[in-house]
Amino acid sequence: MTDAPLAGADATASRPPAARVQHLTKTYGSGQAMVRALDDVSLDIHAGEFTAVMGPSGSGKSTLMHLCAALDTATSGTVVIGDRSLEHLSDKELTRLRRDEIGFVFQSFNLVPTLTAKENILLPLSIAGRKPDSAWYDEVIATVGLGDRLGHKPNELSGGQQQRVAVARALVSRPRIVFADEPTGNLDSRSGAEVLELLRSSAADHGQTVVMVTHDPVAAAYTNRVVFLADGRVVDELRHPDREQVLEIMARMAEPGA
Predict the structure, then answer these.
(1) Starting from the edge strand earliest in sequence, which strands make up the sheet with 225-230, in order?
(2) pLDDT tens digit string along 164-212?
(3) Which of 54, 76, 149, 258 is the 20 to 30 A CA-CA neighbour of 160?
(4) What is the DSSP string of the chain?
């Protein structure tokens, strides 16, 4: 791999953010049993960038992703996707937003075992009653390198190929933002590198906004930017990270009293 920054990454700072988090708090339980998963987090997700969110277990990184992806609701604060505040959307509007403007890549692939790779990729569009843009579909398939595997079902594909199907499924509807939750967690290092390179190129070459939750400093080094959480708060940030810089901050965060 290379730790070189994505082409044109700094230009994204002049664009409106793909997502904006303002004073976001999420609590569970009440009284002495209350857990504060997120504590007054404010953050811009820059359009066209590949951003990693890192932090120790319990830091709030998965909670942050779920709130930004409209999979959960905040206790207080605001999430804005594009120009729409999630707190003002109805359940029907949230469902449409998740379907049309948000893509998901999960650690466990989440493919339908009875469908072929092509059918899995096109499933979100089929559910929405939309036909794919044929030129964009061809470009996505070429990018993920699955042209000769489209007729295969998930059990006929390697783990890396299944995750590439999942990435293609997330990209084919041209969402405003793609959220990836530990996308290389179930992959060997070679397959993981292929998926990370694919996510990186989707940002660098196609202007896709990608947010990845990860615990892996090697994975984080593929991104434009790393945001570090601890105890539900943003505590640090790196631009154009490399593995050693990420490890240094993680080690500092692990020190007693940090």
Answers:
(1) 102-106, 177-181, 209-213, 50-54, 225-230, 233-239
(2) 999 999 999 889 999 999 999 888 898 889 999 999 999 999 899 999 9
(3) 54
(4) ---PPPTTGGGGGGSPPSEEEEEEEEEES-GGG-EEEEEEEEEEE-TT-EEEEE-STTSSHHHHHHHHTTSS--SEEEEEETTEEGGG--HHHHHHHHHHTEEEEETT----TTS-HHHHHHHHHHHHT----HHHHHHHHHHHT-TTSTT--GGGS-HHHHHHHHHHHHHTT--SEEEEESTTTTS-HHHHHHHHHHHHHHHHHH--EEEEE-S-HHHHTTSSEEEEEETTEEEEEEES--HHHHHHHHHHHHSTT-
Q: In terms of residue numbers, what domain contains 139?
A: 46-64+90-254
In a domain, 131, yes or no: yes
Q: How many CB atoms lie within 10 A of CB 30?
A: 8
Q: Is 136 exposed, middle or buried (0-12, 13-18, 19+ CB in 10 A)?
A: middle
pLDDT value at residue 212: 96
Sheet with 19-28, side-by-side order of all strands: 35-45, 19-28, 76-81, 84-85
Q: Is residue 202 part of a domain?
A: yes
- Whether residue 36 is contained in a domain is answered as no
Query: Residue 6 has what pLDDT?
Result: 41
Say what the pLDDT of residue 1 is.
39
130 found inside a domain: yes
Low-confidence ranges of the chain (pLDDT < 70): 1-15, 257-258
